[in-house]
Amino acid sequence: MTRPEGAHAPGEVPIRRVDFLLVLVAAVCWGTGGVLGSLLVRREHLGVLSVASMRMLTGGLLLLAGLGLVGRLHTVRLSRAALVRIVVTAFLTAVFEVSFFTAVVTVSVSTATLVTIGASPVLVALWTTVVRRHRPERTVVTALVIALFGLVLLLGVAAPAGTAAGLGVVLAVLAAGAFGAVTIINERQVPGLDAAILTGYSFLLGGCMVLPFALAFGWHLPHTAVNWGLVVVMGLVPTAGAYVAFLTGLRTVPATTAVLLSLLEPLTAAVLAAVVLGERLGPLGILGGALLGLAVVLVRPRD
Hints:
By secondary structure, the protein is an all-alpha fold. The protein has one domain. The protein has helices at 17-44, 48-69, 80-106, 109-130, 138-155, 163-185, 195-216, 225-249, 255-261, 264-276, 283-298. It starts with 16 loop residues before the first helix and ends in a 5-residue tail after the last helix.
């Protein structure tokens, strides 16, 4: 079966260590978003969608400002294909943010995270198998099973019940599909559109798409310099920096492996929550974290 030009099948292009590490860095950076967002919600009494729109708009603006200062934006001529990629990525990112955070308030943070983060690699693996006719390698499948089991132990959630809970799970699966789609689409790079420029424009546009939903639930700017600092850090670390690293790593890291590595996000969040917010990480959580680490070791580059 033919594939889009520039896309790579699992195992077809050797995974470069630097790209593997970039995806790992992205997952760790994403894990800081939960703690930073929780601090901002507590201090400013903001809704989760307000925080999501702020991090996207801030990340996009700061990244584009930095690119402008170093002269990158003046030399870029965006083709039609590049513009389409930016719009599609922005839309999918906005869908992810709205779906995931609505699921969070409908069910719970742990349930929404488990379904979204857990379903993403499964959906991408199914896409790779059914559409591209490329089955994931046995090692990747084994690592995925181990990682999903570890994720359940780490989050330790009970099965939700009720109509509202069902809607929350559906929204979490939609968020998983949106994240998986971003990963699959951006395996194939557009000539002249690098990860930084794509991330900057996509998050600025995506933030504008999320903003109306945030305004509907109450939105305001931070009142103190410390809280503005939280917004800036959220825009730079778990947003701009994380996605630049992730999209760059997709040069050689297959989509299934990339979303599997993203399972380190909740592990990072759990460790930071224990250290910063005083939340307890019990024995099962520690075991789950160890299993997630084992999954990463299994899919590491061998060369």
